[in-house]
Amino acid sequence: MSETDKTVRSFVTPEGVDLRLHIGDGGQRAAAFFIDTVIILLTLFALTLLAVATGLTSGGAAGMEVAAIIWLLIAFLLRNFYFTGFELSAAAATPGKRLLGLRVAARDGGRLRAESVLVRNAMRELEIFMPLSVIGFRAQEGGGAAWMYLLAMVWAGVFALFPLFNRDRLRIGDLVGGTWVVRAPRQALARDMAEEGSERLVRYAFTPQQLDAYGEKELHVLEDVVRRRDRRTVRAVAERISGKIGWVAAPDQDDYDFLSAYYAALRGRLEGRLLLGRRRRDKHAA
Questions:
Q1: Are residues 104 and 217 in the same domain?
Q2: 204 and 105 housed in the same domain
């Protein structure tokens, strides 16, 4: 089995479409975390310089105390909400992950939920920051028992190396939160599928009722299927849509042509309704 095959995972959408995802490997995730750590440290460094300058110009000791309080507050927010904030965004990725072409996704194939992101990042405190805090505190105190250092190092090492001992490269936080990190590389602008499908619409006449069977969510899934053009997937999706809308296929009908035409017609229908202020997010919406 090639390295590429080892990272491929089956990702089945609620519509039953099997999309293929590539799991981010350990090296990519470590590099992304390193980039994010550098960003946090540089931000704290710049904040430190600003706090010192503000404190010196604000009137001696009192100004320094206020600047220190603000510094501690922002440092706390960076440490605890940097990862959570970025992963709750539409990109579902921190700047480090985006640079490496990675993003966080739900392992069950559904939408990435806020509670999953919160849990996976809360566990980072236990995995990384807490043992490092123990080491830093003992060093600041001067000396300390050797077993304390050893315990903290083993603690950090077990959690840091955990992704290397499971096939999906999951952190403890991923395991608890029901998430995984997948590759989402930037791609060049692809061809307009609606324009291509409109050329085939002359051979297919869909009624408004047949187009109203699906919404925006299914449109995006259908676009991905048409772009990938996997024969088995195209065949399965064409049969599913035909059954759903009551379409009677001609003996010489091409499944890809049918899906391409239906995609173009559905997109035109949804865009036309959107102009009138009526939006249908998925097939379950009224």
A1: no
A2: no
The Cα 215–Cα 273 span in angstroms is 11
Report the DSSP pairing between strands 179-183 and 102-106: antiparallel
Same domain, 238 and 175: no
pTM of the model: 0.58
Count CA within 13 A, CB hemisphere, residue 71: 20
Look at the chain and report how many structural domains it folds into: 2
pLDDT tens digits, 235-251: 999 999 999 899 888 88
- Domain of 247 in residue numbering reads as 193-275
Q: Specify burial of residue 74 (Cβ count, 10 A radius: 0-12, 13-18, 19+).
A: middle
Give the end of a domain, one of 157, 183, 209. Answer: 183
Cα distances (Å, whole numbers) of residue 14 to 17, 23, 113, 237, 282:
7, 20, 16, 13, 11
* Spans of the chain below 50 pLDDT: 1-3, 188-191, 197, 275-277, 280, 282
Cα(86)–Cα(106) distance, rounded to whole angstroms? 16
- 25 and 104, same structural domain? yes
> Cβ distance 227 to 207 under 8 Å?
no
